[in-house]
Input
Amino acid sequence: MQDTTGGGDHFRAEVVSDRFEGLSRIQQHKLIYDVFGEEVGAGIHALSIKTQTPGEGR
Amino acid sequence: MTNEEIRAFIEDAIRENKVMLFMKGTPQQPACGFSMRTSGALNALGVKYAALDILPDPRIREELSSLSGWPTIPQLFVDGELIGGCDIVMEMFESGDLAETLGVEQPELEEAPAEPEHEHLPQRQSGIGLENRLG
Output
């Protein structure tokens, strides 16, 4: 998790989880949005997400 | 316009346009970097798409997010289905999946940076025909 501007409202999240297995990208990103809930769009202006399953790791 | 009318308008837009982008600003004048990158990817693929600026009325975004379950802008729909926001669209653009989804050919990205090398050099447009070449 990275604060990309230092302003506390733009973040980048890179998440690797086996929970993403078998899910579409949309579903994977929705799981991340669920963590932040109402904050996304309110306190958090921008949240850049990259999701991977352990098998997809570089 | 009532909220119901806005929602119906959004639903119609998604249904009637094969490629439908909801963004901040317009493709000509994007009002946010994420919207700019997403419409830029579509432009690079040369596909026809419809775009709706969500900024004029906050209810557009509220209704859109409540029907798509996606909290952020931009949102790209293809054939009535949410493809993703900026991150997913850019990932798919780079992998070639977006071109495939849209049924177009992937532009050859490798060639693009190598070709117009000279474009990065500052161009003197001073009108003075002298080259400042010392020595």
The helical segments of chain B are 3-16, 33-45, 58-68, 86-95, 97-102, 111-114. Confidence is low (pLDDT under 50) at residues 111-135 of chain B. Chain B touches chain A at residues 34, 61, 65, 69-72, 82-88, 91-92 (CB under 8 Å).
